[in-house]
Amino acid sequence: MIREKLFKYFSLLAAICAIVFLLSIIVSIFREGLPIFGKVGFLRFLFGKSWHPTQEPAEFGILALIVGSIVVTIGALLIAIPLGVGSAIYLSELAKPQTREILKPFIELLAGIPSVIYGLFGMAFLAPFIMRLFNLNAGLNAFTASIVLGLMVVPIISSISEDAISAVPKSLREAAYALGANKWETIRKVVLPAAKSGIFASIVLGFGRAIGET
What we know:
This protein is mainly alpha-helical. It has helices at 2-33, 35-40, 42-47, 63-94, 97-111, 115-133, 142-166, 170-178, 183-194, 196-213; strands spanning 51-52, 59-60. A two-stranded antiparallel ribbon has the order 1-2. A hairpin with a 6-residue loop joins strand 1 (51-52) and strand 2 (59-60). Helix 7 runs antiparallel to helix 10 (196-213). It is extended, with a radius of gyration of 23 Å.
């Protein structure tokens, strides 16, 4: 009983400390950044199209930054969702056990690669390739960034979606087969609807990772 109470209070203390640290960071950021609104105004800061803090007069407009982040994130999800969910379906429903044992750890390993490695790959290899392929003046653009972020997000969506699909009870699959459904019909009409909450959670986490990296 005493150990349970100690664990309860320790967990409560840890949660309170986490909240306090987070609020401290938020307050510190607002305190340091608040004076800028006195110079340029909130609306001009939010809807300004230029960000040149070092020139005279300085310009502080973040609209282009916000739009760029949204565009790149949407592009990354358009790439990552089909690849991530598709690979999850393959691993959980179609792949042989030996293949799954090889690919599953490999995908989870990709999820742990630091984002700077993906960025280096994009700048050193992907950007020059995109520039030559489409005859562009520069390869560092939203399309290249979307591809890099998409590759970064695929392991997250794939790993979590695969866990969600694998957690669907086997009895549901057997019931679908008993009613005459084939493999694809079972996956599309039974397995995926049953695992949709986990798949949606993986997409949300992937979205958070993508927009956080922009």
